[in-house]
Write a structure and sequence with these properties.
By secondary structure, the chain is mainly α. It has 15 helices and no strands.
Length: about 325
């Protein structure tokens, strides 16, 4: 039971519960309209809090290691999308058109912030560089991910023009983020003191988006289009993608001569994708029933990356201490 709790944390169990509720009791009619408005407000609050939590000092602390940061950004925004495109002949017959587009969307997302830093710290990697690259990746993703989505998939934001899609991203994501950064001067200390319970605001926003998305998808026939066997196949596809990315980031770090601490940062920073950014951004970019299938690969990949990276971080953490190295990198 203890091992199961390590693999499936409370948030993962909550996500599964929300999917079950959306399947059995999807919101329709006036309820769907109400949840749509609540979702827009939750997304704005989520990105406002991201802006308020992001310390400019932390971002600048590891900024000098530009070669490592460029490599992390390259893995996140170039290598991932290229793998998604190169694997198309294999993936398309296995998972179908809709889920393959979801895999492409997953490949276009920025890296995680909290878990990338936490795993790097546990594994005794370069924590200041991890903070800088993860935070910058999250910020760049607000701009780069919609552009990559349009390039890879031709998505035009709920059927509107590319200009309207960019406008929606700016209004719903970037403006709240910038407002949070500006407000940090007054609320930054309060946010830091209350980080533990504010985490529930982040998670609650994601759960709300997932419920709304899967309600639409269920009404549109998601589970008829995605039978159990295809869901298992999608899980195997996510395993393959994660294995390839971990192998590439590990190999690149060695080939380019980075030390072990920097290779650890590259491994955990360049192989992870953010559900905290990906789910609300999908709500802006994709319409109706398509949204559920679009975020399904992300939800599976997110859980896989946490489980695999937890094991890898523990293995790195068990290595002998180097001369002069502190007991904890955190």
């Amino acid at each position: 039971m203890r091992h199961l709790r390590l693999l499936f944390d409370n948030f993962t169990l909550a996500l599964l519960a929300v999917i079950v509720i959306a399947t059995l009791l999807p919101c329709e009619g006036i309820g769907a309209l109400l949840f749509e408005w609540l979702t827009h407000l939750a997304i704005a609050l989520l990105f406002f809090m991201h802006g308020a939590k992001l310390s400019r000092e932390a971002l600048l602390a590891g900024a000098g290691h530009w070669r490592l940061h460029l490599l992390v950004f390259g893995c996140t925004f170039v290598m991932f999308p290229l793998l998604g495109l190169l694997l198309k002949p294999l993936l398309l017959p296995l998972v179908g058109d809709e889920l393959y587009l979801g895999v492409l969307y997953l490949c276009a997302l920025p890296a995680t912030v909290q878990s990338a830093i936490a795993f790097t710290s546990l594994a005794r990697g370069n924590v200041p560089a991890a903070i800088c690259s993860a935070a910058a990746s999250s910020l760049l993703g607000i701009v780069l991910t919609p552009l990559l989505v349009m390039l890879l998939m031709g998505v035009e934001g709920n059927g509107a023009s590319n200009l309207e899609a960019v406008y929606k991203i700016v209004l719903q994501l970037l403006v709240p983020f910038v407002a949070g950064q500006l407000a940090r001067r007054w609320i930054g200390a309060w946010v830091a003191r209350n980080a533990r319970w504010l985490k529930s605001v982040d998670q609650g926003s994601i759960l709300l988006v997932v419920y709304t998305a899967f309600s639409d998808a269920v009404i549109s026939g998601l589970w008829h289009a995605v039978p159990p066997l295809r869901l298992v196949t999608l899980g195997l596809v996510c395993c393959l993608l994660l294995a390839l990315v971990l192998a590439c980031t590990h190999g690149l770090g060695r080939w380019l001569g980075f030390n072990l601490e920097d290779r650890i940062t590259l491994l955990f920073g360049g192989s992870k994708k953010s559900m905290a950014t990906g789910v609300p951004m999908a709500q802006v970019l994709f319409a109706g029933g398509a949204l559920g299938a679009m975020i399904l690969p992300l939800m599976i990949f997110h859980q896989l990356q946490l489980m695999v990276c937890a094991v890898l971080a523990q293995r790195y953490a068990s290595r002998p201490l180097a001369a002069g190295e502190p007991l904890s990198a955190s």
